[in-house]
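Many introductory courses stop at the sequence. We go one step further.
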Amino acid sequence: MPLSLRSRDLRDALVALVVFLVTAVWTLVVAHYRPEPAGRAAVGWALILIGCGALVPRRRQPVAVAVVTLLACAVYYPLSAQDGPLLIAFAVALYTTAAEGRFAAAVALAAVALLAAGLGEVRQQPGHRQIDDTSLAMMAGWLISLVAVGRAQRDRAAYLREVERRALAAEREQEARARQSATEERLRIARELHDILGHSVSLINVQSGAALHRLGKKPPAAQGLATAEEALRAVRDTSKEALRELRATLGVLRRADEPAPTAPASGLALLPELLARAAGTGLEVRTRVEGTPVPLPPPLDLAAYRIVQESLTNVTRHAEARSVLVALDWGGDALRLCVEDDGRGAAGEPPGSGIRGMAERARAFGGELTARAVPGGFRVDARLPLPPPAPGSATAPTPAPTPPPEGDPA
């Protein structure tokens, strides 16, 4: 049996014992001044034991206990000359019946008790009534109060349970939100690291491979040495840029007392440098810009930059392409990005983590992204909705830096 049930049974048994002791002491005191025959006294004590003992299971069987105590009182008071306070047992049982949610039964038993007391006094001979009209009215108010207090206690317990349930639900919801927020933050950091390291390591791999190829010739020609030197410089610059972006990304994990990173955040303003690094791998990089560029919020600016960066990473790593076109279309409500190469494409291959990451970035801002093979290559199309202009702005915003126009080398 659970500890709470045993504790409740012990409390009920203690209440029954207290009611019995009060009734017994009263009966013994009155019996000293008002003795009665032994047989009648024995019956009175038996009714006291029955009425008080019935209170032990009062929470498990509240209606039955109330009926037993009422019947014990109905027999005890006409029979006994001591008139002990056995009615307390019925009062406790009546309160418990209402507190346990048996409100209709409690009202019915209170009405039966009041009606029985009234009929009993009506049948008495004039001058022999034990309860006058005032006492009968007080008894009615007492019984009604017991039922009302029991009902109020029931409602209060239900209210406290509901408050506890809601508090527990709110706590669980808060914990779920915290876990979801932590998961989203981990995914965001994972995408940042994937894009930064994937792009930079791919370029470093291509450039270092080219340098080793030039230096591997016996003897290395002067032109080969110059090309190898240029490739190594590109490796140096790419690794430096990768370290800068890596430090900026890991800055979100810094302690609260560390200074904030001061390096500029990645965005479309750095797109010319990104295209130049891609061109350093031997790609012919072409650009096309349509519409009027507008400043973007930093998160959206970073997402656009990362989509182009990851697309170029896939081109240099997998496409075996000779040229790539990067197009930006600044529409009135959205920025459209297109990266198309003339490589071998990826027909029939499932999308990798890079493409999934780009799609997640676009969806995070209400946009969409498609990556598919096209005749003669592979194409990535992204649409990023632009935020509405701030109301009441007096001057037009300064345009964001853009790549060179179509046809110019990056």
